[in-house]
Design brief:
Elements lengths: L11 H29 L8 H21 L2 E7 L2 E7 L10 E7 L8 E9 L2 E5 L6 E10 L2 E11 L6
Antiparallel strand pairs: 1-2, 2-5, 3-4, 3-6, 4-5, 6-7
Length: 163
């Protein structure tokens, strides 16, 4: 008879340790990723998704009509001055009374702000605000006599403006 060996090889305890380590890594990575996702973005796109889904077709038609009007806006940022020019299809200034620019970060909402621009000439508006460097989604809402004339959103990088 031979004496029992002190080395038993790969046992059930080893397998249990491997399984626990594997699932421990998977769970810790998932928890970390979930925490990072929830802490860096509000997740809020619309207040009520059902209402937004019901209004989608109406908004899409309104956007098509605005695009067909030929009115276009040009945003420029120089230092602390924000300029917005509105032109008709033929290049002439658009008759607009009010312009509000909503600056939103693509991720997070803690730096978001709005500027109500003042009219300096027909189709030309400006306002003062220091815009932080980086990516922004700028929503421009232009009205004449209280009626919405132009509503557009553009993604910009302030590096384009020399910021």
């Amino acid at each position: 008879m031979t004496a029992p060996s002190s080395s038993q090889g790969f046992t059930g305890r080893h397998m249990l340790l491997v399984i626990c380590t594997f699932f421990g890594v998977v769970i810790s990575v998932n928890v970390t990723m979930a925490w990072l996702a929830s802490s860096s973005w509000s997740g809020l796109v619309v207040q009520n998704t059902y209402v937004a889904s019901q209004e989608f077709n109406q908004r899409a038609e309104a956007m098509k009509a605005m695009t067909a009007s030929g009115i276009s806006g040009v945003l420029s940022i120089n230092g602390g001055m924000v300029h917005y020019d509105l032109r008709n299809r033929d290049g002439s200034p658009t008759a607009i009374d009010d312009v509000v620019l909503n600056f939103k970060r693509p991720v997070g909402d803690h730096e978001d702000f709005s500027i109500t621009l003042r009219k300096t000439a027909e189709g030309r508006f400006e306002g003062e605000h220091n815009v932080a460097t980086g990516d922004w989604i700028v929503e421009a809402v232009s009205k004449r006599g209280g009626a919405l004339i132009m509503h557009e959103a553009k993604r910009i990088d302030t590096a384009e403006f020399g910021q």
